[in-house]
Amino acid sequence: MDIGQLPYLHILVAALAAFALGAIWYSFLFGKTWMKELGFTEESIRSSGANMGMIFGSTLVLTFIMAFGIAVLIELHQVPNITWMDGLRIGLLAGLFFVATSMAINYLYQRRSIKLWLIDAGYQVCFMGLIGAILGAWH
To answer: Phi, psi (5° rounding) for residue 64?
Structure first.
């Protein structure tokens, strides 16, 4: 496999879509519950002094790296005519079997709630499925 031949524009679009899903997931869908599970308030977030540009920029770079990984998995499949559904399956399986389980181990030791794990791991599984579906559709 030649990584120079990977569809970098498609990888970027998939990463941007996953990043946008995160904005929806952690604001409209589960934002209040997520904040409550972490003990955050609107005020504590505003007054934290966090560099949000660095956080969002780093998140986008890391999401691109994950999209790149899904693209590699799709290429390694070496199946002609991969569809969006094949890509979706690859992304969902990688998200479920690797990311969600790894997070679960960490959350057990950190004594975090299952509700927080469901929100965070659910996002990871969904966004990896979304990335896989986009890359599979364009394959």
So the answer is: -60, -40
The token duo for 98 is: 């690797």
pLDDT value of position 5: 84
The answer to pTM > 0.85 is yes
Q: What is the 3-state secondary structure (H, E, C) of the chain?
A: CCHHHCCHHHHHHHHHHHHHHHHHHHHHHCHHHHHHHHCCCHHHHHCCCCCHHHHHHHHHHHHHHHHHHHHHHHHHHCCCCCCHHHHHHHHHHHHHHHHHHHHHHHHHHHCCCHHHHHHHHHHHHHHHHHHHHHHHHCC
- Residue-range definition of the domain harbouring residue 7: 3-137
Number of domains in the chain: 1
Instruction: Give the orientation angle of helix 52-77 with respect to helix 114-137, to 10 degrees.
Output: 60
Q: How confident is the model at residue 16 (pLDDT cuts 50, 70, 90)?
A: very high
Left if phi > 0, otherwise alpha if psi is -120 to 50, otherwise beta: which for 81? left
